[in-house]
Predict the 3D structure of the following.
Amino acid sequence: MSGRLVVVGLGPGPAAQLTGEAAAALAAASDLFGYGPYLARLTLRADQTAHASDNREELARAKAALALAAAGRQVAVVSGGDPGVFAMAAAVCEALEAGPEAWRRLDVAVLPGVTAMLAVAARCGAPLGHDFCAISLSDNLKPWPTVERRLGVAAEAGFALALYNPVSRARPWQLGRAFEVLRAVLPPETTVIFGRAAGREDERIAVVSLDEARPGMADMATCVIVGSPATRTVARGALPPLVYTPRSAEPAT
């Protein structure tokens, strides 16, 4: 079988944050599948075909890409950030597992990218410098009580949190409720970072306390990082503050 499928992470947006490996895979592809705005980042040649779809059509997109690869095409499935973090790599694996036996014999590769939480963290210092976890606030594929339980347990355990998919037009209330859950566990002065479009021209970074954090400070292009009680903010006068979580932790009591 001569077809190949590569799942490619485009990074947070700037061309400088696209890996060389990913760029080579994109150049080698005959067909590229992805959410429309992600495909719009790319400059395709006349011999390359874009297959754009909506952001809630991940499984259908994965099936179509696998079918075309099985027909002998060189296929790339693109994701913003890293394809393995709340993105297309899992959808491709899910479709492959449930699909025809021929799909399992395909040459399939997943190429990493810079995910949003790492891009935002790098803009601020090292807020993820100790143990952390990432949680999507979308309840499209899991029940909201599960999200709340994970938020509470992670905060109680002392993890810094990276919150993906904080709000959308269809989900305007979840981030506010998430802050309520976290305020019941964490000190009001806990650092919260709102990082929108990190590294792009429309980048917006805000560092506030949990007590000051408001849902209106985020949109779907924002990754929200909530520090642990150990996370520190270093004031630097006229320069932006540096936020970091110390590499060591106090013994549990």
Q: What stands out?
A: Helices lie at 20-28, 36-39, 58-70, 88-98, 101-104, 116-124, 144-156, 174-183. The longest helix spans residues 58-70. The two ends are 58 Å apart (CA to CA).
